[in-house]
Amino acid sequence: MIGIWGMGGIGKTTLVKVIYNQILDQFDGRSFLNDIHESVKQNGLKYLQSLLVADFLRRERQDFTSVDEGTGELKRRFRDKRVFIGTENVLAFHLDFRVGFEDCHFTGEQFRKLSKLRFLHLHCDALEGNFDGCLSNLRWLSLHSSILMNQMPMPANLNLKNIVVLELTSCDVRDGWDSIQMAVKLKVLSLRHCHYITRTPDFSRNLERLPDLSNLKLLNEIKANECKRLDEVEGPDDLCSLRNLEIRNCTSLETLPDLSSLKLLERLDAGGCEKLHGREGLDELESLQALNLRQCKAITRLPNVSGLKSLQWLDISGCDNLTEIPGIEEINPISISRY
To answer: What pLDDT score does 48 carry?
Structure first.
């Protein structure tokens, strides 16, 4: 995926046409759509679909009676065509099949030639097959299930050794997923709506197994919001670079591990964790600036917070059973939300 920005009239479209004409022979299906937004605005999505089919089949354009008919025709034509081939010079790829293409699957073989790919963003139904030897230079991987309420299964041998950012939305990530153990350069991990996950990877256990033990300590952000079945978070005490921990609305989570070693942690968001009551080491987070415990109804008492000298924002609204916050008068946060 290549984005070209700039003011009107400087030759962006001309440049795109030149590139298009140079690579069009590499694809079974091809189409050049100029000014998509204006075309859809004036003629509708059915017109755009008919142009695509006409170009792919090299025939005269024929109108569709509905968008659904056009979508069905495109799906049928795409399914038997190698329109996703790629070259080794592609550095980024973004495919979004959220509307009308919910049964689109990709296999490791389709990524075989993309040896230099560094950014991959996919909205699809599944990744299948053997990914061994593929995507070895990938830095940013963002995977999203295209089907509402569906958990996209993950391939077992994704190459994540160079991954810096890993974003998984509505993916079936189970305990023991070995690929993430290779992500020694990982800095940002985002898990959203991964309903089948029961715990995050045990990063401390990974450190014992990986040859380069120090690299995993680059991780500075974990997002595991909305993981309803998550009931355990293990091993963050070795993540000395961690600055942001989000576990918002993990309604099965009851305890947190010892947080005392996270000296750089600036933000802890546990809002909506209704069963959460354990908070060992919370009083030693000297860099903590924002603490969200909103709707944590199981918490009855916080530890002495007088050591949280950096704390500026505290949300304890909805903590109906919280009766005491020792040391709060000594730090005087800028903002405290109680209701």
So the answer is: 78
Query: How does DSSP assign 283-297, residue by residue?
Result: GG-TT--EEE-TT-T
Structure tokens at 133: 């030897």
Give the CA distances from residue 71 to residues 42, 54, 76, 125, 233, in Å, rounded to whole numbers and listed in that order.
19, 14, 9, 16, 43
The answer to whether 310 and 333 are in contact (CB under 8 A) is: no
Distance of alpha carbon 245 from alpha carbon 292, whole angstroms: 11
Identify whether the C-beta of residue 197 lies closer than 8 Å to the C-beta of residue 191.
Answer: yes
Report the C-alpha gap between 187 and 43 in whole angstroms: 45
Between CA 135 and CA 108 the distance in angstroms is 9
Q: Measured between alpha carbons, how far is 81 from 27 in angstroms, rounded to an integer?
A: 9
- Correct CATH for 228-339 of 3.80.10.10, 3.40.190.10, 3.40.30.10, 3.30.420.40: 3.80.10.10
pLDDT, tens digit, 9 for 90 and up, residues 30-82: 777 766 667 767 777 788 778 877 877 777 888 888 877 877 777 676 665 54
pLDDT of residue 185: 79
How many Å apart are CA 302 and CA 93, to the nearest integer?
A: 46
For residues 175 and 196, what is the distance between their CA atoms, to the nearest angstrom?
A: 9
Residue-wise pLDDT tens digits, 123-139: 766 666 677 777 778 88
Tokens representing residue 136 in the block = 């070895």
